[in-house]
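Input chain follows. Return C-alpha cells only.
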Amino acid sequence: MAGQAGVIVTLDGAIHPPDAPLLHADDLAAVRGDGIFETLLIRDGRPCLVESHLQRLTQSARLMDLPEPDLPSWRDAIGLATRQWVADTADEGAMRLIYSRGREGGTEPTTYVMVNPVPERVTAVRREGLAAVTLDRGLPSAGADAMPWLLAGAKTLSYAVNMAALRHAARQGAGDVIFVSSDGYILEGPRSTVVIATEAGGDLCLLTPPPWYPILRGTTQQALFEVARAKGYDCDYRALRPTDLHAAQGIWLVSSMTLAARVHTLDGRPLPRSPLAAEFAALVDSAIVSDR
C-alpha cells in the first residue's frame, strides 16, 4: 500500500515517528557510509529468514571491525517492528536493519530497524522480469581474501558504486546489472545473486557463482538451494562466464526483496522465455519461508 506509514524501532525498544529526524548530522552512516545493513521481507505477517540475515549481519560487522551485534536486542527490535507493521496492514513490508559506527568522536553505534512498503518497482519486476546489462566490476575473481579492505563479503552502507551502475544501466534502457570480474567471470548483481538453470544429461541444475569470489553470500540463494535440493534438483557453485548465461535455460537475479527477477533481455539481446519461470518462482517462494 503506497500510503502506508513506515515503522522505526531502535534497539533500546523505542518506537520513533517515521517522519521525525533520527540520525545526528555527523553520524558516520551519513558522512562516510561507514556501517552495514540487511534487508528482510515481511510476508504473511512474519519476517523472512531472520537468523540467516542476523548471521550475515554478524559477519559483515566482523569484516568492518564493528562491535559484535547484540543479537537478542536485534531479534526483539525485529519482532516489535513487525508487530507495529502488521497492526496496520496485511501488505508485505520491506524491513531494513541499520548498523552504523555511530557519530564522529567514537560514540556508541547507531542501530535501528525500519519497515516501509515494498516498492512498486519490486512487484513489477517479480511479475514481468527485467532487462540487464553486464558491467566490469574491476575486481579479479580470485584473490579478494588477500585484500580484506575491499570488504567484498560485507553488506555495507556504502552503495555509491552499485547505485551508479544501476543508473548507467537505466541510461541503456536496462533495469539491472550483472557484474563481471576483470578476468571474465560472472560475479553478482548490485543488489542480488545470479542464479541460472542449465540441463546436463537430462537433469536440471541450478548454478550460481562460487562464494569465494568477491561477492556477498546471498541468504535467499542459500535457502533456495536447500529447498531445491530437497525437491530433487541439482544445485552447485560454479565458475560462469557471460556465454554461460546466454546458453542457460533461465537467468534470475535473486534477493530477499525482489525474490526472483527473471532476466528476459541481456546486453540488449532478448532471451527465450524460460520454461522453468513459474517453477523457479515457486521454489523461491518456498525458500523465503523455509525457516518457519
